[in-house]
Amino acid sequence: MTTALILALLPIALLIALGAWLRHRQFLSEAFWPQAERLGYYLLLPSLFLHSLATAQLDEVPVREMVSVLVLSTVGVAVAFVTLRGLFKVDDAAFTSLFQGSIRFNNYVGVSAAAGLFGSHGIALAAVANATIVPTVNILCVLVFARYGSAGRLSLKATLRQLALNPLVLACFLGIFLQWAEVPLVAGLEPALKALGQASLPLGLLCVGAALNFSTAGSWLKPVGMSSLSKFLVMPGVTLLACHALGLRGEAAIAAIMFQSLPTASSSYIMARQLGGDAPLMAGIIAMQTVIAAVALPVVMIGLSGWI
To answer: pTM (2 decimals)?
Structure first.
């Protein structure tokens, strides 16, 4: 288990480091990075979510129980985090980064680790986790940005408009609808969406690395610690309780806990940049959680697996 998790994390760390090096060496013009972030947010990431959700193979997976556990744990931690907003001595933009770092997860690590641990059955478990957590966290994050983003508090109408027009949320619901309706993607469209989605992962991680500013690393320590405590301890603990409460057992329970223990995703940075969050802090949280996860994720999985 430990080897599979570390091997899934290693390429992520390497791509972040490459992005930092490219920015430092000015290999690409400064104008490239904002355009790359925009491309990822509006086209590549939506393609990834749409394709993965629409083509998921869900045979022999306890879908209802797994979905219930993942939604309950994600929403529960998110509500607690917002309720305790006053305890976090950071500005609103930084709070959005803490929030994302506490509830978002890295799809790439999750799918790779699930396949390594459970084979083809792990891909199906990963598909259910993606289909559940991706739309849930994107809706929660859009709501938090509407309240705490740099644009200020939005009205109910403006918040609903953000949700309705958010490309990540739209892609998630379209993918889920196609899965539910058993409508296959058009033969020529399916490989195109798959290719675009695959491009989102390396490009997003390069952008994360390019955004790192180590001169302000000292200011990351407390936010990284708070978000990591929530991500690697609180979230998996709540998920374990939900598994017991809702009767989820075996490999499905292990997969649910694993997905809720993953480091936050590179899409968090792109969303922070596009919706008015603290993008440099978000980049720091992503990078540091990826490193921390190499130790924290195996420890959490081995420690909690005996309680399932």
So the answer is: 0.78
